Amino acid sequence: MTDSRLAIIILAAGQGTRMKSETPKLLHHLAGIPIVSHVLATARELDAAYTIAVVRHERDRLVDVITDQLPDGLVVDQDDVPGTGRAVEQAMDALPLGFDGDVLVMNGDTPMLDVQTLSGLVAEHRRSKASATLLSAYLDDPSGYGRIIRHSVDEPSVDRIVEHRDATESERAIAEINAGVYMFGVAELRDLLPQLTLHNAQGEKYLTDVVELLRRAGSEVSVLPVAESWLVAGINDRAQLSEAAAKMNALIIRGWQLAGVTVHDPATTWIDLKASIEPDVTLLPGTQIRGATVIARGAVVGPDTTLVDCEVGAGATVKRTDAELSVIGAGASVGPFAYLRPNTVLGANGKIGTFVETKNAQIGEGSKVPHLSYVGDAHIGAGSNIGAATIFANYNGVVKNHTEVGSEVRTGSHNVFVAPVTIGDGAYSAAGTVVRKNVPPGSLAVNIAPQRNLEGWVAAHREGSAADRAAKAALTKAALDEQGPDNSTPAASGAENPGE
Ligand code: UD1
Ligand code: CA
């Protein structure tokens, strides 16, 4: 139910310079979705009367994500006055003057925060009746964060927050940091924001300075330390991004393990937030389950497999495979060393085997492409077998063409199907066939030239070579064998009896 007394402000206007990236910091991914999307999802669950996101740097790219996830949210553009304080000041202008509830401010770069912690903050703020309540954490390495300065150790209230860059040596020794998540009463916040100045190391309006202003006005600011410090990890650079990603991945994997999924090696297995996995699935080491991949009961995936937005049927096995936007049927087998490009659909109990690449290929129930092949822009019926080393030649240099293979077809090794071409139900093709014409159902396609053997060619052109010596030895032996057929019975001939 909507909390009519709550407004949420999400700060997403910063440049994120420490990422050193063309991509805005908040659009870097964590568990398969942008950093800011985690924050937006949490805000959405809190269901506030107003949700306001502040943007500036790369605003269009951020606004796309924000409006997609929070269609009812408000977007505010920050002007060129820098700082979190300025961002909140401008967001407040978007809040109707009649609103007299509480304002929850969240940094957009704190994606690990969960709804439970935030609801706890809202409840604590309303219970204590302090003018502001903020989340803190105790960190082993607090560097970079703002530090919580308390009047005295036994005093529960905060005096001020000092940013790392403005802090003295002794202040920097304080392990309690400001998490960047605050509850404020709307009236006081509105009054104090215009008093912020740019007089600090970064020349920015710090939201954190509101704490000192409140205290000077005689108000209480209380602090709620979080249960575990990783909850409030802020992401400023790529090292922090990978730390947060590892932590989130560990939580996601644990969740699936408790839901009945076997994960052999959590350290080398990565599962995106949107993936969905049924019980009794086994994930082997080095496996990445990305995007909205869905894996059904009993499937075994890995080792060393990446699935992006794929669907894997019950009981299928997918080994050392890279697949994207593909469907693998129940009981089917894929890999090792297979590459499934978008729109590959493998039917139930089918096989895409070793060193096989597929693209836009629908392979019917029980059909097999076992070895060393490329299947592109093709449809294969049910129960067919494609010989080893077969190429579906789909591209004539200008356009891509389709190959149609029927059901119960057996094609020979090393075929080329020159698209567009159709091979009828129950047809065969000989090894080495280049299929340029349609093959009617039930026929055998052969187009290879008769083989000619130029006898003595090696002796004439490679005289004295190892090949020549081997050939001569074999020919001599064959001649001797022919002379003395009574030396050996047919059963004793061959390797057992070299005939020397
Ligand atoms: C901020 C806090 C710091 C706290 C830390 C927690 C301030 C001054 N400092 O520092 O006390 O320990 O978060 O993670 O608030 N942003 C804007 N507009 C701006 C600048 C930033 O919207 O002009 C947004 C950013 O996009 C980001 C968030 O505010 O999502 C925090 O900004 P950032 O520069 O990362 O602040 P920190 O230095 O981490
Ligand atoms: Ca930050």
From TrEMBL:
It holds the Pfam family NTP_transf_3. Pathway: Nucleotide-sugar biosynthesis; UDP-N-acetyl-alpha-D-glucosamine biosynthesis; N-acetyl-alpha-D-glucosamine 1-phosphate from alpha-D-glucosamine 6-phosphate (route II): step 2/2; Nucleotide-sugar biosynthesis; UDP-N-acetyl-alpha-D-glucosamine biosynthesis; UDP-N-acetyl-alpha-D-glucosamine from N-acetyl-alpha-D-glucosamine 1-phosphate: step 1/1; Bacterial outer membrane biogenesis; LPS lipid A biosynthesis. Keywords: Acyltransferase, Cell shape, Cell wall biogenesis/degradation, Cytoplasm, Magnesium, Metal-binding, Multifunctional enzyme, Nucleotidyltransferase, Peptidoglycan synthesis, Repeat, Transferase. GO terms for cellular component: cytoplasm; membrane. Its EC number is 2.7.7.23, 2.3.1.157. UDP-N-acetyl-alpha-D-glucosamine binds at residues 11-14, 25, 78, 83-84, 146, 163, 178, 236, 341, 359, 374, 385. Residues 239-259 are annotated as: Linker. Residues 9-135 form the MobA-like NTP transferase domain. It comes from the Bacteria. InterPro entries: Bifunctional_GlmU, GlmU-like, GlmU_C_LbH, MobA-like_NTP_Trfase, Nucleotide-diphossugar_trans, Trimer_LpxA-like_sf. Binds 1 Mg(2+) ion per subunit. Homotrimer. This is Bifunctional protein GlmU.
